[in-house]
Fold each of these.
Amino acid sequence: MEMRNIYLPERAELVRVEKLTETERLFEVMLPGRRDLGHQPGQFVQVSLYGIGEAPISLCSSPLAQGTFQMVVRNVGNVTAALHRLKAGDYVGIRGPFGKGFPLEELWGKDVLFVAGGIGLPPLRSLINTLLDGAYRPKIRRLIILYGTRSPAEFLFGEERKAWESRKDVEYHVTVDRPAVGWDGHVGVITTLLPDLALDFSNTVAVVCGPPVMFKFAILALHSKGLRDEQILLSLERKMKCGVGKCGHCQINNIYVCQDGPVFSYARIRDLKEAIQ
Ligand SMILES: Cc1cc2nc3c(=O)[nH]c(=O)nc-3n(C[C@H](O)[C@H](O)[C@H](O)COP(=O)(O)OP(=O)(O)OC[C@H]3O[C@@H](n4cnc5c(N)ncnc54)[C@H](O)[C@@H]3O)c2cc1C
Ligand code: FES
């Protein structure tokens, strides 16, 4: 088997760039020869731009989609701003996929509850679309998606969410933090969707991703529904450099988020002070 150099970015073509919101763009990426990236939901890649730098970005497409993969990038700094200036036909460097993704086998036979806040939806979308595939959907029981953003202007994946909403085998609930003109749906932070949700708490796995401030409140709300720490999976973000467990940038005590995560059960990280804000 060919051994890849984990430090060597591979030149990959942007085949589609789509503006999703004022700050987020979707990038569809093709490796040379349309080779599959071979990722698992929950993993990330290091995206580099020559002369600018590198940033870890989650894979937001299902591994079942072949030939290309997708990422959603929020424009927050050097690399991400430069990425936002690119268009279809331009090239980026890709290293990866890296990290441990979601443990699929632990979901089989369970109700799976997604709690996605804002930019937390893209990494979960990779898992959601995998589980919605005909080969995987029968392996789980309920599939519940809770999605929240600050305002309707920040919603991602409009058409796709409509499709989730119309499926009988998906329970989809959406909220925005504050009232907004033209919005007649639920208002309140994402955890306000939980009290009215009937859950079989002993047989549910919650999968949580969102801004750092959300985690603590989501965990409290899930505990109040009867879920144990082992039943809560979180996808964490940390400052990273190498992405492969060598430089220590992402270290929290004895854990390297890039290599041991970014997906962790809450039981694994609850005693690490800095893991959750
Ligand atoms: C596993 C993982 C997955 C991720 N997935 C995604 C994803 O799917 N999509 C996504 O958009 N992001 C994702 N991120 C986050 C992304 O990697 C970071 O936002 C990254 O830092 C962006 O790189 P940058 O060079 O654009 O930003 P940087 O230039 O490094 O800036 C990062 C932050 O620092 C602040 N900053 C920059 N310069 C200054 C300054 N001079 N003074 C004060 N503050 C400053 C910026 O405002 C910003 O908040 C992920 C991170 C991890 C670890
Ligand atoms: S980013 Fe280098 S050890 Fe994790």
Amino acid sequence: MINFDCLTLFPEMFNGILEDSILKRAIENNLIEVKLHNFREFSTLKHKNVDDSPYGGGAGMVLMCPPIYDCLHSIENNENAHKILLTPQGRKYTQDVAKELSKKDHIILICGHYEGFDERIRSFVDDEISVGDYILTGGEIPAMAIIDSVSRLIPGVLHNDESAPTDSFENNLLECPQYTKPFDFMGMTVPEVLVSGNHQEIDKWRKEESLKRTKERRNDLLDKK
Ligand SMILES: C[S@@+](CC[C@H](N)C(=O)[O-])C[C@H]1O[C@@H](n2cnc3c(N)ncnc32)[C@H](O)[C@@H]1O
């Protein structure tokens, strides 16, 4: 069971992923719990502002420390949780990081918005994560990507626990090609070995194809291997 607490200005953005399919079932089966906290509610300002213009001038608005600090400290057991700030300046998110996070009991995710956040917010967290070298409008999509990818590594979340270990990036390899019915689609047929019934040969073919695909598309993964 992992508890996720997510600090966000837009909690309704999470409805889609939490109310459908695999994550919905994981919540119902008490394998994960996701609580959303709108830190605007912690603003003590008259108009519930959570941001202000940057010191020194410049474009955009910067998220202020107090609402995020107070929201974070309102979360039960926050002192023992793994606190993550979503930022394009963080360490890059990969399957290895997802695996590392799947061992935690309690994860707190802080979603930025607007131009960014007051630098001092960095001192509230244990970790900073980026989902890639591009800029999103907020940390909600990265938080959802983390909740989704970590949750599916928790035993029992996927219907077939066998499928996660053969996914791409396991053992630094891409997954081999997959086929299903019909055998012949517009003249494109399924490799004969897959219908041979010879499981040793099928296994060998899959390993070779996985290696070949990784070499062609992601040679960098083989360096890690
Ligand atoms: C428009 S971005 C601000 C980017 C900031 N001005 C900078 O250059 O680092 C607003 C927020 O979206 C989130 N965000 C944007 N891109 C992200 C990424 N690649 N990974 C993680 N979070 C991201 C962060 O929480 C960020 O504070």
